């Protein structure tokens, strides 16, 4: 597990496994948000496996599977709803953490502004400058 802080309440990570749940719980997370579709890569743990382990560790979990490069408005809305509803702090995961970071950026840029989004994501090791520039060109 490699949690990277975006905010005090939202962290992203590459793929986690059922075996990671004790460490997730010990790190103080209260919920998990899966943004990775099942069977994206051979051998990845399925959502049901991760969810069963999360439940056993008394962690709330929700899936908002997002196909990389094919994010929709419905995906953005489902992500926003999940982040709003889940107990904080949240650990979101996908293949590398980038997809979760993109979704967080999309759902927070209006409230925080591009500069704040860039600072938060850069501090976590993710470069969202292209995304922010694209959004700024549309406004």
- For the secondary structure, the number of strands is 5
Could you give the order of strands across the largest sheet? 1-2-5-3-4
Mean pLDDT figure: 93
Structural class: alpha/beta
What is the CA-CA span between the terminal residues? 37 Å
Count of individual helical segments: 6
What summary fits the major beta sheet? Answer: 5 strands, mixed
What share of residues are in beta strands? 5-15%
Radius of gyration: 14 Å
> Which stretches are poorly predicted, pLDDT < 50 over at least 5 residues?
none
Helix content: 40-55%
SSE topology string: EEHEHEHEHHH
The backbone outline, from C-alpha atoms, is globular
Secondary-structure blueprint:
Layout: E1 4-7, E2 10-13, H1 21-26, E3 31-34, H2 47-56, E4 60-63, H3 73-85, E5 90-93, H4 98-112, H5 114-123, H6 129-138
Parallel strand pairs: 2-5, 3-4, 3-5
Antiparallel strand pairs: 1-2
Helix pairs in contact: 3-4, 4-5
Structure description:
The protein is of the alpha/beta class and 139 residues long. It has helices at residues 21-26, 47-56, 73-85, 98-112, 114-123, 129-138, and strands spanning 4-7, 10-13, 31-34, 60-63, 90-93. Strands 1-2-5-3-4 form a five-stranded mixed sheet, with helices on both faces. A hairpin with a 2-residue loop joins strand 1 (4-7) and strand 2 (10-13). The radius of gyration is 14 Å and the shape is globular. The chain starts with a strand and ends with a helix. The model has no long low-confidence stretch (mean pLDDT 93).
